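Researcher: Let's do a round of design. I'm pasting the C-alpha cells now; please hold your answer until I've finished.
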C-alpha cells in the first residue's frame, strides 16, 4: 500500500520522520511520501529510518500558493533538492513572517504568545500557534483556536505571502518535479472545474484524487477530469498525526485509503522523463 501525502515535525505534523516511518510500516505502508510544507528537511531522516522496513520513501513537498485570494496547495514529487532548497529558504522565511504577524494580532487582542520555533528549519504554520495558545491556557483545543482566531476570515488570520499557482507549479517543474493539485475540493476560491484550466495552463501534471475529504462522488469526478486531461492520479491521507477539523474518533489513520502501489509507477516514470 502507498501513502503519498504526509507531514512530519518539520512542518505541522506531530511525528518525527523516524516516528512517521515506523507508524507507516506498522500500518502496512510500502511506499511513503514525505510532503512537508515548504521544506525538504525531513527527507534524509525518513530515508535512513525506512531502510529497516524495506520501505520506499518518495521525496516530496507541499507548496502553499495563493489563488483568488485563497490558499491552494500544490504537491511536488521527486524534485531535485539541489535546485529547490534555495527557493524554499525564502518560503520558510515568509512562513516565519506570517507567523510573527499572527502572533502580533493575537497580542493586540489580549493574547500574548511566544513562539519557540522561530529559529531553525521548521516550516511554521497555524498549528504551531494553536499549540502555543493551548499551552498558554487561551483555548482548550486546536479546533477552538482555529474556529475562534486562526481560521480563514478569523480575527488573527494572516494570508500567505503572494506566491501564485504559476510560480508554485513552475518552481516544481523547473526543479524536475511533478506538480499535483492537493485535495482540490478543499479549495475555497472557486469550483474545481473553473480553477483547473488555469492550473493546467501553468503546467499541472496531476490531481490528488483520493483524500479523506473526497467522498465517492468527488473521487469519481476527479477521476473523470484526470482521464479528460491526461493527468496523473495520486492520493493520501494528508496525515499529520492528528486532524484539527475532526473529533478524536474521526481522526485519519495512515493507510486508511488502502491505495495500491500501482499508483506510484506512473508517477516515477513521469519523473524520470521530466
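Researcher: That's everything. Go ahead.
Model: Designed sequence:
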Amino acid at each position: 500500500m502507498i501513502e503519498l501525502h504526509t507531514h512530519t515535525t518539520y512542518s505541522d505534523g506531530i511525528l518525527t520522520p523516524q516516528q512517521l516511518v515506523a507508524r507507516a510500516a506498522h500500518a502496512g505502508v510500502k511506499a511513503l511520501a514525505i510532503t512537508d510544507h515548504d521544506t525538504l528537511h525531513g527527507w534524509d531522516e525518513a530515508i535512513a529510518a525506512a531502510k529497516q522496513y524495506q520501505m520506499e520513501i518518495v521525496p516530496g513537498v507541499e507548496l502553499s500558493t495563493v489563488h483568488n485570494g485563497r490558499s491552494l496547495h500544490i504537491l511536488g514529487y521527486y524534485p531535485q533538492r539541489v535546485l529547490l532548497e534555495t527557493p524554499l529558504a525564502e518560503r520558510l522565511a515568509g512562513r516565519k513572517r506570517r507567523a510573527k504577524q499572527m502572533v502580533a494580532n493575537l497580542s493586540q487582542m489580549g493574547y500574548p504568545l511566544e513562539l519557540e520555533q522561530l529559529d531553525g528549519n521548521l516550516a511554521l504554520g497555524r498549528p504551531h500557534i494553536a499549540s502555543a495558545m493551548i499551552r498558554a491556557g487561551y483555548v482548550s483545543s486546536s479546533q477552538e483556536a482555529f474556529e475562534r482566531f486562526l481560521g480563514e476570515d478569523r480575527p488573527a488570520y494572516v494570508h500567505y505571502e503572494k506566491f501564485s499557482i504559476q510560480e508554485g507549479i513552475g518552481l516544481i517543474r523547473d526543479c524536475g518535479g511533478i506538480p499535483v493539485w492537493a485535495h482540490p475540493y478543499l479549495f475555497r476560491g472557486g469550483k474545481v472545474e473553473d480553477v483547473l484550466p488555469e492550473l493546467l495552463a501553468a503546467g499541472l501534471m496531476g490531481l490528488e484524487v483520493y483524500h479523506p475529504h473526497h467522498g465517492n462522488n468527488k473521487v469519481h469526478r476527479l477521476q473523470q477530469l484526470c482521464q479528460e486531461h491526461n493527468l496523473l492520479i495520486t492520493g493520501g491521507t494528508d496525515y499529520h498525526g492528528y486532524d484539527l477539523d475532526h473529533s478524536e474518533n474521526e481522526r485519519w489513520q495512515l493507510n486508511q485509503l488502502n491505495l495500491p502501489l500501482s499508483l506510484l509507477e506512473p508517477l516515477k516514470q513521469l519523473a524520470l522523463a521530466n
